[in-house]
Write a structure and sequence with these properties.
By secondary structure, this protein is mostly helical. 67% of the residues lie in helices and 2% in strands. A two-stranded antiparallel ribbon has the order 1-2. Helix 4 packs antiparallel against helix 5. The chain starts with a helix and ends with a helix.
């Protein structure tokens, strides 16, 4: 009788242990699934914000202008301040052109921020076109008022976009920005690009 009880007790313990083992396996499987879901959630968030991720890929070797430190931060800050110092419309294009020529030294990598720098470059190109139109119209004695007005509007956009880029790169966007960058989901990006690319179409005709 004792032997039967012992065998029965042994079977009962084995059954309980197996039950515990099965329960533990289920718990581990649930935890594994939760961990898997957590990883997926994190990866999804990263993917959503990937267009905002950017890095400095500048190669400033050989740049020694203005007596500033040859870094992207110092360079963009210098131009953001310098560009506002002129009110002479005849200097607008030359100042914008000087900056965009230096983009061979100072570059960023990142989907949205690259779009913003491209818009800056297109503004400069359009100002170059207007500068040429003005010189031709003046030689031919044609009224230049409309071209000058477009040049002023373009320069204003250029200046404001540059200020926004400086705020992003130097991480001092606590204050208000002009809302012209993709990087900050600016509320005036559509306004800028409508002006820019409708004008570009007109030039191409």
């Amino acid at each position: 009788m004792k032997q039967i009880k012992l065998v029965f007790t042994g079977l009962l313990l084995s059954g309980l242990l197996m039950g515990c083992t099965e329960e533990e396996k289920k718990v581990e499987q649930v935890k594994a699934k939760e961990a898997e879901n957590e990883v997926v959630t994190i990866e999804t968030k990263t993917e959503v914000n990937s267009s905002k991720v950017w890095k400095d890929v500048s190669k400033p070797d050989g740049f020694n202008d203005y007596g500033i430190e040859p870094t992207l931060k110092a360079w963009i800050a210098y131009h953001a301040e310098d560009i506002t110092k002129t009110t002479d419309v005849n200097e607008y294009y030359s100042r914008a052109n000087r900056l965009t020529k230096e983009l061979s030294y100072f570059r960023v990598q990142g989907e949205d921020l690259e779009k913003d720098f491209e818009n800056l470059n297109v503004l400069q190109t359009f100002m170059g076109h207007l500068d040429y139109v003005i010189s031709v119209e003046e030689e031919q004695g044609i009224d230049t008022a409309e071209a000058y007005e477009e040049l002023k509007v373009s320069f204003k956009y250029f200046t404001e976009l540059l200020q926004d880029l400086n705020s992003i790169i130097n991480d001092n966007r606590q204050g208000e920005t002009f809302g012209l960058t993709h990087q900050l989901d600016g509320n005036r990006v559509d306004e800028l690009e409508k002006f820019l690319y409708s004008e570009a179409v007109e030039i191409g005709k």
